[in-house]
Design brief:
Blueprint: E1 2-7, E2 10-13, E3 18-26, E4 30-39, E5 46-51, E6 57-59, E7 67-72, E8 77-82, E9 91-103, E10 106-113, E11 117-122
Parallel strand pairs: 2-11
Antiparallel strand pairs: 1-3, 3-8, 4-5, 4-9, 5-6, 7-8, 9-10, 9-11
């Protein structure tokens, strides 16, 4: 089993900053891509940022230049530094990781989700 636990959400004024953190634990052989998604009220969950195990990053257009995704492979953690926050960044932010785990005498790779952390930006 793999658990992902997010932290760092909260209430912030527009223009402010927050740093989200996600810690992965459990029977982990390796973590491949890691992502941050968000879901605003009444909207579908959307991909915000992703990072490969080698550190290559991708961002959705609306957060480019404001958000930075990073990871600490030794600690099985991924971070999302969010600056210049806007009201439209409000939502529940979810961590997602593609993890290779033991599967009997073999290994298997699956995606896992955290429980989410609320980010509220007041205008």
């Amino acid at each position: 089993q793999v658990q992902l636990v997010e932290s760092g959400g909260g209430l912030v004024q527009a223009g402010g900053s927050l740093r989200l953190s996600c810690a992965a634990s459990g029977s982990i052989i390796s973590i491949n891509d890691m992502h941050w998604y968000r879901q605003a009220p009444g909207k579908q969950r959307e991909l915000v940022a992703g990072i490969t195990s080698g550190g290559r990053t991708t961002y959705t257009d609306s957060v480019k230049g404001r958000f930075t995704i990073s990871r600490d492979n030794g600690k099985n953690r991924v971070y999302l530094q969010m600056n210049s926050l806007m009201a439209e960044d409000t939502g529940v932010y979810y961590c997602h990781a593609v993890v290779t785990v033991p599967f009997g005498t073999r290994t298997g790779t699956s995606g896992y989700w955290g429980q989410g952390t609320q980010v509220t930006v007041s205008s």
